## 1
Amino acid sequence: MTANATVNPQQTKLLQEYKLDRPLTACHWDPQSRFIFCGAEDFLIHRIDPASGEKITLAAHDSWIRAFGSSSDGETLYSGGYDGRLVFWPACAAKPEPLRILEAHQGWVRAIAVSPDGKHVATCGNDRLVKVWDAATGTLVREFSGHANHVYNLIYSQDSRQLFSCDLKGIVNAWALDADKPRALVTVEQLHGYDTTFRADIGGARSIALRGDGGQIALGGITKVSNAFAGVGEIIVALVNPADGKLDLVLQSKDKITGTTWGLAWHPDGFWVGVSGGGGGGWLYFWKGDMAEEFFRLQLKNDGRGMSLSPDGKRVAVAHVDNHLRTYSLV
Amino acid sequence: MKRHHPCGSMEHGLSRRAFLNRTSLGSVGLAAGLGDIITSRTTIAEQVQAKSKRVLNIFLHGGVSQLETWDPKPNTDTGGPFRAIPTSVPGMHICELLPHTAKQMHRLSIVRSLDTKNGDHARGVAEMTTGRGRMPGADFPHLGAVTARALMPETFVLPGHVLIRSSPGGRNVESEFHSAAYLGPRYASMALYDANPPKFEDRPSEITDEADVRRNAVRARANERFLRRRRTAETEAYNFSYDQARELLANRHVFEISRESASDQERYGTSQFGKHCLLARRLLENGVPYVQVNHADYDTHHENFDFHIEQLGEFDQPFATLVADLADRGLLADTLICVMSEFGRTPKINKTYGRDHWGTAWSVVLGGSSIQPGAVIGKTNANGTEVTDRVVDHGHIFHTILQAVGVDSMGEFEIAGRTFPVADPSRGAIAELLT
């Protein structure tokens, strides 16, 4: 943490609760702090005004919503669903109707990344592809193939010139936007397991974040899985250097909490924030990034399935299984 | 001193009814063999018809989700993220994870109304494959044993009951051996692992044909002497097994999918399940009366949706290819297809995106032979939490499978002077599903 800390993680406390009808799947804080967008186990996006508590729904998906992104001014919302669609929305409209509906992937859209320069929106999915779309027109700009498995997550480099994607088996590729083939960055073995009893793969980056200086990618998931079909494994965050693919550090929990890291963010004060859900319950974690174990951990009311840091860094929104979006204050 | 069989009897002799049947049918090679059994209420003509029938049972171990397969409920509180897709039957929808199977549904039917009142793996496997409720101390024959017993001609040289599965290493609920119970060990399963043929051992080259004939004669004499003193179902089965092993050697090609064309191997794919389906086709084409292919694992308490993508992604294309091939080759009219599991999965999605065990409202697929194609039997409510029409269980499915291949499931086996119902007498076939 910096000397000019703006928050105190040890003071983290529940701030607000918003109840929906179904368990939540994802959440996303609008860059201008006006709204929090949620996905739930319905086919809707729920827009919540944290100030007033007003909720409205946005309908254009034919399945659950899994991923969100925003233009830097917050005027355009991008949503990706289990239906393979990428939808552009006027985020702040009184009754938002889709600006654009793109059939982006065969199978799920698992993640969305918006380039820092605002020009492109990237998606990845179960068709093992990474795609780059023009943020203004929705035109497909690039389509990258090279992963042999479902692509679980992706993020842009700070200069918007590279994309980093991670698949089911923990294979991280770097894609230069002007190159045809990926640069194999690293395979994070800890992010994947094959359960020989159930004969199934488990793993992948369920969450991703970039350090503030762009010098480290954090990949969250589940590790040391002893029973894939019961979800018996420990939470993990792997810190990878995007320049050389070196695995800098593996973050864990002190008490080896069972579960999956479903949300990650880099806090401007200089630490990682993560959320988990699973057998060990819901937790918020705070890691300094230079040591494997968290410096603080807070048990939540229920399991987390997604997390978003507010633009001012003072609040965290968590998508919970028990039909609630909750915000937590870090001050 | 002459020994009697442990049961006191006649286990290996022919019952009067069996004798009459055998003498009537022997010339066409239809008598069933050891301790012959004929269902008592079945006419000879029906038995003749039944003899060319076969059963293919695909067992999805662990409990496949009915919501991610045959009874989708999209956009309900239980429906999960997947959509329903239309099939080749107007108005029939299945889960989008089965796009290839959807194109074959005009050849198959869905029973959506199983209520087996069970969420235990081992019990579910036992009940679905024997058609009976599990009772302590009771051992009922597996569907494969019953099928082989009823359909396998005496002169058939291959095993009548074949299980195709992965090497041991999975959980023990994925059966390695199917009991024939009172039908006798001859009808128990022969397992083939990992799409490989049985492990054949050729006769050492230094043993000439002449020497082989001589040594077999010695073995046969010793056997006969032994059998005069200790005749049991097991010794009969041992003798049969020896003869069968020799026949297997002579017919080893039946088990070798490498003999299939490159294009066929490509169509079935490189997954183990794909190879298993191709092997199943080969066995069925060679007249094996009962072939079961196990596919594992579907016990998805955690991340049900990811794992169903993975497992059904393996299942869909090879299964659809097999159905289409059986139809194209004229075998479907005589081959009953079943896709079953030990139970379904909970409509309620748990906190880790999983579904748990659920025997209250789930589905089985049947097709081929005398099954009405393209039908949907039974119904569940809007979110799949209960059956609202035509409740059936393992007993009804068992009867239906047997009747679809011409076996009188309400009849009895007569063994050693005792009679055993072929299937649970308290249940019956789903009559409206049979043509």
## 2
Amino acid sequence: MKRNIINNCAGVLFLLLSGLTGFRATAKESEKGPLKISISYFSLDNRLPYLAVTAKCKIDGKFQPVGGASIKLYLDKDSTGKGIGLIATVVTGEKGKATADIPASLEKIWKASTNHTFIAVTDKTKDFDETNTELSVAKARITIDTADDKNVVATFTEFKDNQWVAVKGVEIKMGIKRLGGELQIGEEQSYTTDSLGKVKGEFKKLGMPGDKTGNIILVAKVEDNDAYGSLRIEKTVPWGVKFTANDDFFTRALWGSQFHSPFWLVFMAYSIVIGVWGTIIYLIFLILKIKQLGKEEEKLS
Amino acid sequence: MENSISTKNDKQAASAATFANGRRKPDALTDEQIISDLLPRKFGKLGMIWMGILVVICMVGVFAYFRQLKYGLVVTNMRDYASWGIYISNFVFFVAISLVGSLITAVLRLTGVHWSTPLTRIAEIIAVSAITFAAIIIIVDMGRPERFYNLFLFGRLQSPIIWDVTVITTYFFISILLLYIPLLPDMKILLATKEKTAFYKLYRFMGSFWKGTHLQFRISKKAINILCIAIVPVAFSIHTVTSWLFATTYRPGWDSTNFGPYFISGAFLVGSGAVTVAMYVFRKYYNLKNYITYDHFDRMGKIVVMLGLLYLYFNVNEYLIPAFKMKKPEEGFLDSLFVGEFAPLFWAAILGGMIIPIIVLLFKKGRHPFPMFICGIMIVVGAWFKRYLIVTPTLLHPFLPMHNVPASYKHYFPSWEEWAIAMGSLAGALLVVTIFARIFPIIPIQETLIEQHEKEHNK
């Protein structure tokens, strides 16, 4: 008995201690780290680029996205103080991400230089201190050419001294655009530009389904390059197999859509329904007949 | 020849003699006595308490459903895997129990069995209330019940769900007719004897036209015969189609060609169990010992044994054969039933819901009213849990492993709202039976009188 009481007391004490320790551990773990902002630069089809910013912080030792963070984005360091280089003020979503296009009003500044710096600034809030993050990129472009022998050539150039200059040693990926991503055109996962800024890949995915006219979309892209950011270009080529829509969905089958049931099922189902409900209606008719007989009997009596 | 008939009659007479001392058959009863005994009567104190309990349970269920409508299906513990919980188990249970109407009324009537006459109305009202609540509970299971009409607008004829909706509606109407038409002759008696009651207008509305003419009887008999023939395939369809809701889905435990007969045999068993319980309750509390006799319990007991053995046979097929092969995808499911988290419930349902009642009812004393009542309850409760075991363990054992899901998705135990709604629906079904017995004769008066007269005439 005494031993039981001691055991129980020890158990309760253990639970209390472990509970308190657990609470302290939880309290410690839920401390937030500083806000971390990252900027990514994107250029699609060599048009005016856009920026993507990500806000995150460490919670429980893991980076977690920070939603609702207000971030001011500027083009070039010099303009921040003057307030004329403001690209946009963005607020991050649930996944801690936001995007902003470079507005037409900044075209002059954009064209004035070959290299630009993007600055992301956040103000001090009750959760986080102010931050200042920068990303420098050089203006560059990527082009894609094809030949009849189904070779794909991508060229990477940088804008330097008022002209486009080939860049050597840039890693380029070439692929075919599909629904869920890109399929590489050949066996190489990526290619590195030569002294002419070119890479050449052989298109080996013969028999690839294309659209109704047999077109497929080729893609050449540079991803997260330290100097140039992310660039991507697409080109439509008639190298695919013409796609003919399978209209089985609209034929009469067990997997068919509404009003496309097989005839045998329609015949069987409606025969049964008509047979059974016809019987029910006949039975109701018999009840009405009984009722009629009752009324006649009442009149007679 | 004559000797053999006389021997048979002697045996029957001897058998009848065993029902002496409160086990009397209605042979010695006058018409007035029969009418007086079988007319519906006001609830006593016990009846009022019973009604009160049922109403309270129903109200709690309604409140829980209100919460479900307000907050959505999140108030239940059904999640991505166990997306069918006790609502669907309850639905299958109700569909099963409703089959008894076709067994007692139609099958026995068509095969020329007359001893079941006092049980026909009990069976039919159980069928009607059960099928009504089966339809209700399926709507309860829907997250957005106001979109139910879409089933009719966009339903595909190829889908077993459409078949189920069609066949449930049909069975409901046929059961209503099978309840109503044999009730017509009793209306005349009710109108003659219950003039000052609150239900007089209802009786007038329902059956004032019944005059008991020869032609009316002839048409009514014809209608009942048609109904008895029609209800059997419809009843078989209703439970076969319900079984196909499972069997047409490729999952461990449901991938079976036996599901139709397996469900039907189980349905007949639970339906008979429910009738046995109702027989005992009505006999005891409505003082119907002269009409629901030991003989009825004895015969029903034999039917229950036969149906129990049949259902047990299908269970052996359903579980033993997959267990013998023990295919990898089914291993987890079968383990959970035989030795895992569902094992206590599984073995309780097999032993308590089938094997023990079968053994008890094999003995003559086991077929006496009270043991029959206990066995009936065991069968019904066992059958309810059996439906739960058909639905839930399969859903918790999908072919693809459960990865990166919250721990709560891997187990299922109903929330209080689910319990309240399920129990509310069961109480609702009992309430329908109770109210029916308050308004209408639970044993057909006219048929009892006719049989009595026939017996006297044969003497």
## 3
Amino acid sequence: MAITARDRIRAKLKDGDTTVRVLLAHPMYTGRSKDENGKLIPAQFIQDIRCWRNGNEVMAIKCGTATARNPYFSFQLAGGAVGDKIMIRWVDNLGAKGVTETELR
Amino acid sequence: MMENSDKQRRQFLKRAISASTLALVASTGLLAPRRVLAHWPSDAFTADTVEDALLALLGQAQDIPEEKVSFKVGSPPSYAVNGASVPFEVISSLENIERIAILVDKNPNPLAMSIELTADVKLPFKSMIKVAEDSKIIAVIRADGKLYQTSRDISVDIGGCS
């Protein structure tokens, strides 16, 4: 199933550090929930999220099924200058992918 | 007959050599793109108990000194109306944090998230997890090659279908 909703990302400079907030649009089905007909919804969840700053990989998050629907993350990066490119890529267990990118301001 | 076995031997030698060179090249990391971090650890994420998940991911953990870490779960703390999205926050003064793992004791698969940090990343780290029922949430931090563990109890009104 393709995921069409858009991911959102914000990066802000605060006290010399970068604050990044990410909201990914993903249903995060665990494989244990049922649809309205009582049939199990197959598992589909994000497994791997990576964050790049100006082409350098700075963080990787591995998710299990217990990560909430439409995963939200907030973290800080040391330093940073206005115009830095922050990129997030994710992959789920079925191979669906997403990229979202923003500029630090 | 003699010729045939000779040929086979040569072919075998050739293959062995090319295989070993390939292995050498691969081990130096020339072939693969720079991979700092490992693959998705499926043993750890599909483990049924906290102990198994931890062992598969990190190994044994020791208890964290309370003042070195602030781990908040739920809002207001220790309580969540909806278990489907329980916020948490990790702040720590430990140096050289390499990895943070979040586990929910009573979930079918306890390991919720494993965060691999580089020196560029600063805490706090905030995110949301699913919690199936009233449970203990464990944060395991790996810093300087040592493991630290802290936990919080949380009660949820509506269990997150996890």
